[in-house]
Automatic annotation (TrEMBL):
<keyword id="KW-0560">Oxidoreductase</keyword>
<protein>
    <recommendedName>
        <fullName>Alcohol dehydrogenase</fullName>
    </recommendedName>
</protein>
<dbReference type="GO" id="GO:0016616">
    <property type="term" value="F:oxidoreductase activity, acting on the CH-OH group of donors, NAD or NADP as acceptor"/>
</dbReference>
<dbReference type="Pfam" id="PF00106">
    <property type="entry name" value="adh_short"/>
</dbReference>
<dbReference type="InterPro" id="IPR002347">
    <property type="entry name" value="SDR_fam"/>
</dbReference>
<comment type="similarity">
    <text>Belongs to the short-chain dehydrogenases/reductases (SDR) family.</text>
</comment>
<dbReference type="GO" id="GO:0005737">
    <property type="term" value="C:cytoplasm"/>
</dbReference>
<dbReference type="InterPro" id="IPR036291">
    <property type="entry name" value="NAD(P)-bd_dom_sf"/>
</dbReference>
<dbReference type="InterPro" id="IPR020904">
    <property type="entry name" value="Sc_DH/Rdtase_CS"/>
</dbReference>
Length: 272
């Protein structure tokens, strides 16, 4: 029987990464895992000062001062985002991978614009900045961008309409940015990961108190995968994912490539 062969696009070892929303939840898991896999350096951006500083101290104690850097940054503020990228470049003179992971989930109508700004607009801005730095066509050395979406991007449902729409937008944007024509020019893979429900603070009822008093999201989401499962899946995608591909990481299962199914669905939708 022929041995199965998986193309490894990237080894984490000795690479420089930037992770948004890296102070807590899945993002913090990604930061820890990258360092565990011998990344040269991981910079993580977050608004959560206390959690970010605590994680930075933990990682510096474990891996050394040059390995991890917490940068307090509201990614929806373009000036702050640009400064954070500059800080990483000034120090390390290179960037190999970006994980656009930060997001907010709220049903407070006063915060709807913020949800769009953080989940979608800032993901677009960060992707463009990363391409500007890593793109071979811009003088960079190539690299990888992973944009975190959600299973909600693939399901038609009436709950969480704005959040789901931002995640659908992230999916469509990332597929386009990772398409073959774009990749052949930039040599930067752009890949989407759709996460299933995962046991982090984003699902806390306190976020969602006004959502549906009779059936809060906590009771709808009966299966939540562990953060470690989400993180292992994202690392597998980082190593193996083709540019423009879409992966699903859910139910504590191994990450799987959903691109073909999605392409079939899109071809049905395009047949108008
Ligand atoms: N947990 C789930 O069930 C689930 C399911 C599907 C997709 N996702 C996606 O996974 C990703 C990670 O979410 P999580 O579950 O770890 O949530 P989380 O709330 O635990 O972590 C999100 C992090 O982003 C940070 N953040 C929020 N706004 C920011 C801003 N403006 N600038 C910088 N940082 C900011 C938060 O402070 C927090 O540390 C998100 O993109 C989310 O949409 C999560």
């Amino acid at each position: 029987m022929a041995a199965s062969y998986v193309k490894r696009w990237l080894s984490v070892e000795d690479k420089v990464f930037l992770v948004t929303g890296g102070a807590a939840g899945v993002g913090a898991g990604i930061v820890r895992a990258l360092l565990h896999e011998n990344a040269r350096h991981v910079a993580f951006l977050d608004i959560a000062d206390r959690e970010g500083s605590a994680l930075e101290s933990e990682l510096i104690t474990k891996y050394g001062a040059l390995k991890a850097k917490f940068i307090k940054c509201d990614i929806s503020d373009d000036g702050q985002l640009a400064a954070a990228y500059r800080q990483v470049l000034d120090k390390y003179r290179r960037l190999d991978g970006v994980i656009n992971n930060a997001a907010v989930l709220t049903v407070d109508e006063r915060n709807i614009k913020r949800m769009v700004d953080v989940n979608f607009t800032a993901t677009v801005s960060s992707t463009m900045k990363a391409l500007e730095i890593m793109g071979v066509h811009k003088g960079g050395g190539g690299g990888t961008i992973i944009n975190i979406s959600s299973l909600l991007a693939l399901n038609l449902g009436s709950h969480l309409p704005v959040y789901a729409a931002t995640k659908t937008a992230v999916l469509q944007f990332s597929i386009a940015m990772g398409a073959e024509e774009a990749y052949s020019e930039s040599k930067v893979r752009v890949i989407t990961v759709c996460l299933g429900p995962t046991d982090t603070a984003i699902l806390n009822r306190s976020n969602l108190d006004n959502f549906d008093k009779d059936q809060p999201i906590a009771s709808r989401v009966d299966v939540r995968q562990k953060v470690e499962s989400a993180v292992s899946g994202i690392l597998k995608v980082l190593e193996e994912g083709k540019s423009g591909s879409t992966w699903i990481v859910k139910n504590d299962q191994i990450a799987y490539d959903y691109t073909e199914t999605l392409n079939k669905a899109f071809s049905v939708l395009s047949d108008t």
